[in-house]
């Protein structure tokens, strides 16, 4: 691997702390590989911890990086100092996937609310019908 191909990357976390710097190849290292490295080297004791690679977004030069691109494809040609460290910001977005029991309980709650609304509408209609019967029978008297 030629020396020009190697770059140093540091990952800046949400609280201002860093992971790295790490030296990697700009032509063979992909963004997905970098994300795997971030997940495996995540510091212990942080309030927010990614569990899988899909929960992480890497941002460099104001752009969210695509998983399938190499580091070399993501680099901006201007603003980098030769021999300097590239800083990528790490954004963690924990997945909101619900468990099966949460889903069943949510469905149960929705069904209950719909049944309650239907019951209220039925009672309101029923009351209006009775009200009309009482009013019309009072007119007949």
From TrEMBL:
<keyword id="KW-0472">Membrane</keyword>
<feature type="transmembrane region" description="Helical">
    <location>
        <begin position="107"/>
        <end position="124"/>
    </location>
</feature>
<keyword id="KW-1133">Transmembrane helix</keyword>
<dbReference type="InterPro" id="IPR039540">
    <property type="entry name" value="UBL3-like_ubiquitin_dom"/>
</dbReference>
<feature type="domain" description="UBL3-like ubiquitin">
    <location>
        <begin position="5"/>
        <end position="101"/>
    </location>
</feature>
<dbReference type="InterPro" id="IPR029071">
    <property type="entry name" value="Ubiquitin-like_domsf"/>
</dbReference>
<keyword id="KW-0812">Transmembrane</keyword>
<protein>
    <submittedName>
        <fullName>MEMBRANE-ANCHORED UBIQUITIN-FOLD PROTEIN 3</fullName>
    </submittedName>
</protein>
<dbReference type="Pfam" id="PF13881">
    <property type="entry name" value="Rad60-SLD_2"/>
</dbReference>
<dbReference type="InterPro" id="IPR040015">
    <property type="entry name" value="UBL3-like"/>
</dbReference>
């Amino acid at each position: 691997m030629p020396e020009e191909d190697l770059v140093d990357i540091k990952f800046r976390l949400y609280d201002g702390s860093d992971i790295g710097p790490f030296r990697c190849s700009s032509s063979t290292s992909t963004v997905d590989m970098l994300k795997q490295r971030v997940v495996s080297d995540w510091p212990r004791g942080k309030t927010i911890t990614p569990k899988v690679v899909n929960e992480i977004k890497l941002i460099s030069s104001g752009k969210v990086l695509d998983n399938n691109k190499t580091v070399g494809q993501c680099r901006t040609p201007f603003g980098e100092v030769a021999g300097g460290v590239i800083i990528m910001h790490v954004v963690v977005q924990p997945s909101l996937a619900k468990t099966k029991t949460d889903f069943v309980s949510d469905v149960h709650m929705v069904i209950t609310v719909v049944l309650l609304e239907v019951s209220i509408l039925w009672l309101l209609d029923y009351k209006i019908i009775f009200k009309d019967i009482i009013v019309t029978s009072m007119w007949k008297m």
